[in-house]
Amino acid sequence: MTVLVGHMPGGTRGFLRQLYFELAKMFGRRRTHIGFGVFVLLELAFALLFKRERSVEWVQGMIERRASRAGPLRFLFDLDYYYSALTMGHMILGVAVVLLGGLFLALVAGDIVSKEEEDGTLRMVLSRPVSRGRLLAIKYSACGVFTCALISFAALSSLVTGIIFWRPDGGLFITSRDLELTAFHKFGPGLWRYLLAVPFLALSMFVVTSLAFLFSCLRMKPATATILTLALLFIDIILKRMEPLQDIKHVFITSRMSTWQLLLARDIDWWLLIQNFSILGLICAVSFFAGWSVFSRRDFKS
After folding, report:
1. Distance between the two ends of the chain, CA-based, in angstroms?
2. pTM over 0.90
3. Residue 4 has pLDDT above 50, yes or no
4. Which of 33, 98, 71, 37 is nearest to 238 (CA)?
């Protein structure tokens, strides 16, 4: 901390230097690494449980049903090809990334400002010749780096787990209830689509990070900022899944966050992709500037 605030150079080089020390401080906390370990445990548990005969039959039955609706009957005779590393990697992400990823993103981003205020170190930082806007920009950028790191790790480790336990050169089968989407890809195109979707998945999860960052800028405890973020996330998920609201489920935030799966569709709906990510980007921007507006007016002297 002393190194970070002892010298505050300006310009891009100075910003990157300060960002480096902010990341070093962030990743120096044990709680920052919990999410990575939990994802590994989930993937191992998922792999062991889905090797059971009943689980294999369930997945293959789902592939067969979706294939029959999609049209090409040749998929019905090659179920093992699509019961693969790519398919199971996508399945793990689809089940866990919003809830588990959201939990640990909210935990870290909810701490980023409020924890320093609680520890009393924020006054020392603000006593140095650095603007509050620059300080928040550094912390917000650090949250963005952490979001990319956690989500990329989850996506790639899920794929590695699939390669270890399932067919490594099989095709990609995806199905999404939110987007009413079903698609089949051969190994090469499937792997490319999977890797292409990872940055968009990280961008969609940055909404959770931004909301937690906003609450962290308010006058509240770190735990409160995390809980409020998760409460909003869970409320959105609950409302989206209610049967009377199925005709408007596309307006909920978590439905728009699932837009990253459009990159896995047979024909990508670029207009819907751009539209939803524009809305998600607007939510992130509003969250940051709302947090900055409140933070810049707070009195930390009394």
Report:
1. 22
2. no
3. no
4. 98
